Amino acid sequence: RLWYGEVSLATAFWFYNFIGGVFLVFVGRFIVYNYLERSSVVGAMIMGFAFMLYGLGYQAAAVIGAWRSANRYTGQKIWAWLANVMVVVIFVTVILSVLIDFLGIL
Question: Taking the model in full, what pTM does it have?
């Protein structure tokens, strides 16, 4: 339902994008750092890369779902517009984070 924008804008934005995104960051960092302490750097990099791919997929679905929910929103249009602006900011931040943290670019 999220993918098609069939959840409320508040749920799509706050639960899936904000809370879900923050949760993914903390879990991902915990997994990588915890694995790094118990294993090799290469192992931690592989775990980090695998979790990054999962996180990118999740975040893409959350952003697209929030965008579509905003387009279906029937309340005050300012909230839909602000949600669209913020999901773009979130997505750009995620991409920059991947480029900086995992690929060493920028």
Answer: 0.78
